[in-house]
Amino acid sequence: MGAGLSMAEAAPRFEMRGIRRTFPGVVALDDVSFSCAAGEVHALCGENGAGKSTLIKVLGGVHQPDAGTILLDGKPVRLNHPLEARRHGISIIHQELSLLPERSVADNIYVGREPGRLGLLDRAAMRAGAETWLRRFGCRFGADAVAGSLSIAEQQVVEIAKALVFNARILVMDEPTAALDETETERLLALVRQLRAEGVAIVFISHRMRHLFAVADTITVLKDGKLVGTRPRGATSPEEIVRMMVGRELKDYYPARRARAPGAPVLTVAGGGNEWIEGIGFELYPGEIVAVAGLEGSGKAALGRAIFGAAPFSRGQMVVGGQAVRPNTPLDAIRLGIGYVSDDRKAEGLALRQSVLENALLAMRGIAAIFSRPGRTAPRGRGIDQLLREVDVRAAGYDQQIRLLSGGNQQKTVLARWLALAPRILVCAEPTRGIDVAAKAAIYRLLRAYADSGKAVLTITSDLPEAIGIADRLLVMHEGRLAGELPAGATEEDVVALAAGHQFEAAPA
Amino acid sequence: MTAIGSAARFAPVRLLGRIHPSYAALLVLLIAIAFLTPNFLSPLGVMAFLRRGASLAIVSVGQLFVLSMGGFDLSVGSLITLAVMGSALMINNDPALTWHAIALVYLMGIGSGLFLGLVVSYLKVPSIIASLGALLSIKGVALAWSGGSPQGYLPDNFRQFGRVTYHDVPIIQVLPMSVVVLAVFVAICAWLFHGTTFGRLALIVGDNPRAADLAGVRVRLVRIVGFLVSAVSAVTAGILLGGFAGPAQDVGDGFELQAIAANVLGGTQLLGGRGSVAGVVAGSLTLTALFTVLNLIGLPKPLRDAVQGGILIAAVAYSVRRQGWEK
User: What ipTM does this complex have?
Assistant: First the structure.
């Protein structure tokens, strides 16, 4: 720690000065300066579209700046191609990992740099080299493991090893914690600190204030392609950073709860189980938001899929609106009045090349008669256009392909898809994964308003502050079972203790 | 302000990019044909051209339904052969049996489409493999049934669909019955693809079947209907071809690839998610015009095949580049 700080005072490993980059019709970066010293973790934040990824692509040689200079160890360089950047020791680990899923860890670490002897692959050297890296990082898997079989967190470690084999001295990590749970995040942050101590210059991009503040020495905020400011961590606060990102005070980040009238539960699960979960029992009432928390692999994702019929319960009872049901497909569940927002927006939520409108209409299309006229009016008479305006999807037009929208606007479109059907139970898996702060606040408001309209919302989230901030009650899962229930106002420590499997006296009511 | 300036500067370029080159190619080819055959620009010439292109246009539009869902239907060529050979064998020049035979070949087509759809949806066999298998099986059945050589005869009331031309029609003077069949088939398909929920779902399934499933879409049903439309299009094309050319055991050969080529030319996205009936009709007419030109300048059949293969590759390469530009 002390070593890291003293090294940070030396000449920066890289410095970007007055970078400007335009694309047809937009100024993506306007006079942005950014630097990082050896042994420094410099966090970069900003909302989607603020210019973070363009800045990273300029550093990585993907885009060339229209104006401004890049200095490496004080010497100006031109990075005309990603390979040149890589030769200068700049390595970028993207949010979408780039490992070859069918190849071993060793193959992946050495891809493009395979050690050879007499023109043949030196597999022994590759394996030994890979094992050395894995040991250094304290990994529990071996060099022969197939990359595709590893968890996201483990794959990230392989990506980091791969970068270091390329002699990376500047490591850029784009949203590395977005798909990780708390323990995995802790492990990754520890690894980042280790790399910092070894003198690597690290650029750390994240939306999560807690992770930023846990690891960054310096924090820089971009907004609308401009530099808002750079602050040492000790001299700022999460509130200030959020204010800088949004450009205004984010009031009522989590919407206020309203007392709800007690009534009959809209969903009851008793003894529910399948391949992944066991002995699930809980009730969900109209008007409330219940958050399901737990570590990756705790079964919280499987619970959402079971209720929605995507990976149905094979045991136990499920009662919806007073009737025993057993939804075996998503369509069954939808007909019962259950909606589901997937945690993997791109792979499971959106038809990326279709329009915003078609994506918003998808659930309505699913239950419509197959040879019917394709309408654009929700069953309750509200037009889909109006609904998209209400949830505030910002697009050049609703005919625009949805892949061109920001993550936040994509997620609002998915929400609109379900609001159009007005299901009495809305299951949302990771409703704010990978979207910016303002969009998160908007999603929280939408979910709260939906609950206030008398519907039940079940959110499944790895983001603890979010779970605590938004929920009326928390269900915590551990190893496929419900470990306990916590009321609103529970602390992160309470949740973590339950999620880690510590037993409590208090049993779910 | 910069936004407005650069948008204006780029607009003409972008507009040029939007016009699909298939239409330009079609126009050039039609002008070439007009130069090579003097009476092409008469109603007679145009109708003769449409009649020649009708069967390919019909199979191509059928193929659109499978391609837009991210599949391939390679079985249509041998299904055409089966429809022609089967009809000839069942009717054997007895006009009274024509309608029964037509009903039976449609049933066979529906059976084949249903089978393919079920295999692809439930057994999860990739459609390119399943339909390649069906291509071999159907062709085998057609050849075994006919003993390997063209047999049986098609009476006039069967051949009328491909052959008969109404005369003294106002304005257009002549109207081949195959053009009527083409117009009706295309109209039905345009309604299915652009005017029903099914058409929207076909594109969504082609784009992301998992997302469709999780939104409650009956993905299997959508896929099965797609294969049914394709199979029905093949039988319809076969009936036209039988009338046009008579029974032959190679009558449908190569139609599957021509139909895919016509789709690519017409802007259908291979692997799904995009396509239009109008585009595919234009694409198939482009291909027919190309064959006509190659024929008129006296290129032998093997060379025509070679040129066709080159065109297919070039068209796909172009459409991939085009997607890149749109990003």
Answer: 0.86
